[in-house]
Amino acid sequence: MAEQPLVIDSNAPRPEPRTSSVETLRQEILERLTYSVGKDPAVARPHDWLTATILTVRDRIMDQWMESSRDTWRTGKKRVYYLSLEFLIGRLMRDAMSNIGIMEQVQSALKSLDVDLSSLITLEPDAALGNGGLGRLAACFMESMATLKIPAYGYGIRYVHGLFRQEMSEGWQVELPEEWLAHGNPWEFERRESSYEIGFGGHVEPITEPDGTVRQEWRPSDHVLAVAFDTPVVGWRGARVNTLRLWSAQPIDPILLDKFNSGDHIGALEESAKAESITRVLYPADGTPAGQELRLRQEFFFSSASLQDIVRRHLQQYGDLGSLPDKVAVQLNDTHPAISVAELMRILMDMHGMKFSSAWDICRGVFGYTNHTLLPEALETWPVALLERLLPRHMQIIYAINAEVLADARNRAGFNDGQIASISLIDENAGRRVRMGQLAFVGSHSINGVSALHTELMKKTVFKDLHTLYPNRINNKTNGITPRRWLLECNPGLTRLITDRIGPDFQDDVTLLKALDAHAGDPNFQQQFAAVKRANKAVLAELIRERMGVVVSPDALFDVQIKRIHEYKRQLLNIIEAVALYDDIRAHPERNWVPRVKVFAGKAAPGYWNAKLIIKLINDVSKVINNDPSVRGLLKVVFLPNYNVSLAETIIPAADLSEQISTAGMEASGTGNMKFGLNGALTVGTLDGANIEMRDNVGPENIFIFGLTAEQVAERRARSEVPRSAIDNSPRLKEALESISSGLFSPDDRNRYRDLVGGLYDHDWFFVARDFDAYAAKQREIDKLWNNPDKWYSMAIRNTANMGWSSSDRTIRQYAEDIWSVPVTGGE
């Protein structure tokens, strides 16, 4: 039976919108400080002023936030729902002030109160809701959807601690809880009315209806409550305000009361801790059965809560579910929310009485799936036994979907046994496991890669046979970044310089940066560009001195690699080349060496030993090089701990050289390369991910490409080529490896890096040794260019000028047109 739609009274009383004059802002900041924070201005501390200012800025967002929601309800516009386990949103106050255009007014209001806005901005904690590129992409996409006036919700988890706070102990990574919520979050609103029960375990019982049909009813053995917390996401110029809805896991009170009343106080506490553990940390270690179960609970928890919320909202507005694909688009950001396919089928069939075929049509009409990786370990699989125990009804549905897909492959496409095994949702090779990538693929009408190369490799590798079966589903949507945060906000000096030269219109349409091309050869503009870069480098140099006690010169070449620590990203190649350069500087002091500062930052997964060992190696090498007087300060190596969005906002504008050196064919896209290029850094990189499109846009003469291609890597892996000869034929590489493995940089443990280096001789899966000579030669080419500043800055300017293609506005327009079928009414 169709439900009656909820009617919204458009004539309900509303408060007058807030004004933003300096005097009004000053008065409201004082009021918030007094009546919301509870502090007298005479004794208020900086964090009190921060909270009062955030609340004052937030008030200016509320009118547009509510109007955006009313408009969607009134017009019946299709909504986009972006499901992601990560949203690396960073600090929000500067972003919000900039996007609604009140930065200067707030700064003046605070100045009249003897408070410095820039100091307050640095006090705001980064929301610990993500790890790296996947989460930052989700944040950029949310901002772009608001800018383009696309009605959207982001759905994720309100992690108490997020990933972890990274500190160093004698050069080793130490993981500590990230306490970003310790003092509350003034940006969020708890929505207690938007709470949903999430079940686990139990059994499935067939129920015979009066008409003789049989439906399945899942009766979970334990439940938790998902409670919504909403954060506004503001588009550029306040075009629209969308919602980031994060779920917090809480115990269901009656269960706890029963335990307390029966005297089982410890059991009640354990029940509460079990519920709350679901949203405590991002990516709990899954090396044990308990860790795997917690990860699966996390993914199902936020997927189920989000889908229940989506269905509830749709029924409130439209009364029936037949129109769901016309009014709802759900984008699965990687495989983490892939269980949503089975959960939506359960909701439609078990809770709303649909037949399998009708529910399956709706499901595929609603879902789109973004694949972010070709790495086998990142394409999630779950043991069948775990799913049968934790989500028994969903396992039944997965079997039914698999039967449907395999029958289609046999009967329509004539697949053989090998192809059937390849596309099956159940992997039979190493213990029966459910393939979440395959589940997301078959349950979606669109599957997109995130760069041109990655998308083509998807068709040829992980989804080859599914692409044969469904040839029109895979498409490319190259990732992008929001230019508001990654140029206008993080690099105000460069923004002012560009505005002075070509006018302000590029702030609304970043493709207009192309006009800078005409000024790339202007010596005066080159000098101004260089001055902005040096000022940014001076800021980073001071940060390095404060945090690391290392003095670096802003006049050196700042060579930067900041990203998640992983062997395929090849921080190891970078630090080995630094060792080789160190040897060369000492052996040939008479040469005119370019002063160089190598900056690393990034976190290693707690259970990833080699990644943590690489961090230790970087720190060991830096200790030796930075304190060797024979180097004469020509080379400095720095690892900055606890990489996050705010640290990136300081590092990226200061970078001269961006290291994008992943093994070809292994980086799906990369968005760090785009941020660096937009801010006038030159890129040294492989033909991998979006580096290829970056080269095509900035011109091959304005980027440093080296190394084997994806095809060459695949061919050499296929013939099991032995890497030892590459080392034996490279004296500089061999010497560097011998010094590392011998313990030169680890006198306290001479064998620390023996296995790490030995792996390069034995298999070198990530082609560090075989790409070394090409990489080192490119670095010396870069040195020569650095000594020609006119040429260097003309190339840097052309990188900034030609990075308009990297905007996430462009990416979201393509999603809107090709996948979601929603109109774009905002932006240029």
Description:
With 828 residues, the chain is α/β, with parallel strands linked by helices. The protein folds into three domains: 92 residues, no CATH class; 377 residues, Rossmann fold, CATH 3.40.50; 249 residues, Rossmann fold, CATH 3.40.50.2000. It is 48% helix and 15% strand. The chain contains 33 helices and 22 strands. The protein has a nine-stranded mixed sheet with strand order 5-8-9-2-1-10-11-15-16. A hairpin with a 5-residue loop joins β6 and β7. α9 packs across α11 and α29 runs antiparallel to α30. The chain is globular and about 95 Å long. It starts with 21 loop residues before the first helix and ends in an 8-residue tail after the last helix. It holds the Pfam family Phosphorylase. This is Alpha-1,4 glucan phosphorylase. Keywords: Allosteric enzyme, Carbohydrate metabolism, Cytoplasm, Glycosyltransferase, Pyridoxal phosphate, Transferase. InterPro entries: Glycg_phsphrylas, Glyco_trans_35, Pyridoxal_P_attach_site. GO terms for molecular function: glycogen phosphorylase activity; pyridoxal phosphate binding.
Largest β sheet strand count, sense and barrel closure: 9 strands, mixed
| Strand element count | 22
Radius of gyration: 27 Å
Principal-axis shape? globular
- Which residues form runs of ≥5 with pLDDT under 50? none
The CATH superfamily label of the largest domain reads Glycogen Phosphorylase B
Mean pLDDT: 95
CATH class of the largest domain: Alpha Beta
Cofactor: pyridoxal 5'-phosphate
Catalytic activity: [(1->4)-alpha-D-glucosyl](n) + phosphate = [(1->4)-alpha-D-glucosyl](n-1) + alpha-D-glucose 1-phosphate
GO molecular function, one term: glycogen phosphorylase activity
Main location: cytoplasm
